[in-house]
Amino acid sequence: MHHAMRGLIQTVLSDIARNGLPGNHHFFITFDTRAEGVDIADWLSDRYPEEMTIVIQHWYDALRVDDDGFSITLNFGDQPEALHIPFDAILTFVDPSVEFGLRFESSDRPEDEPEDEPPAPGGDGPGGNSAGRTDGASKDAEVVSLDRFRKNH
């Protein structure tokens, strides 16, 4: 199931790379900045030493998807930065426009231990990016609540 969920993310991003974002679709992707294969600017890894949430919505460039991950250029306070994110580094993938989300959780957390919630995207980082928690190495997939990604009106 873990492989299938990551394959779904690959399929969605490949379609976006070819055809652009349809309608109101946009994505919040949280990833482990320490994961093997993650390539981000030093200042971003210094600012987000554990995890980071990116938003693919209005401005992005050079989206390329391969079997292992994706590369994209995003704008951080009028400073374009190239990122490479392996699919195995992704912690959450959410499209709030269709209320769809995946979360890849650590399976080594005891069942009675409360789950930490990452902050809502767009709160405290440049270009609408925010940092939160990191769980660990081995991950399983589950559906994530979209409430924390909704705008309050």
Concise synopsis of the structure shown:
The protein is an alpha+beta fold and about 150 residues long.
Number of strands: 8
Low-confidence region ranges: 107-146
Average pLDDT across residues?
Answer: 74
Radius of gyration: 15 Å
Helix-strand pattern, N to C?
HEHEEEEEEE
Intertermini distance: 36 Å
State the helix count.
2
Give the % helix. Answer: 10-25%
What would you call the quaternary organization?
Answer: single chain
**How would you write the strand order of the largest sheet?**
2-1-6-7-8
What does this structure look like?
The strands form two sheets. A five-stranded antiparallel sheet has the order 2-1-6-7-8, with helices on one face. Strands 3-4-5 form a three-stranded antiparallel sheet. Strand 3 and strand 4 form a beta hairpin. The protein is 16% helix and 33% strand. It has 153 residues and is α+β, with helices and mostly antiparallel strands. About 26% of the residues have low confidence.
